[in-house]
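note to self — DONT lose this again. spent like an hour looking for the file last time. sequence + predicted structure for the chain T wanted, 84 res
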Amino acid sequence: MADSAPQQAQHHYKFDITMTCSGCSGAIERVLKKTEGLNSYTVSLPSQQAEIWTDSVSYETILEKIKKTGKEVRGAEADGVVAE
């Protein structure tokens, strides 16, 4: 499920994730769908990115949920700042 970005969200996170097939992107979508408190998100297999808009969920929480899928997070941004 790919939702459009909300007009105003307190936080915007972007993750570069190794995804090689629709099963990979589907795993990311499933974990995001189950995460309460997200305003919206998009998952793109061609760009290998996930973007999340939220007012209440921390960057660390989302990062941990993505990592639990077994996918490699190659890089990320939290509110426009490159994250560790």
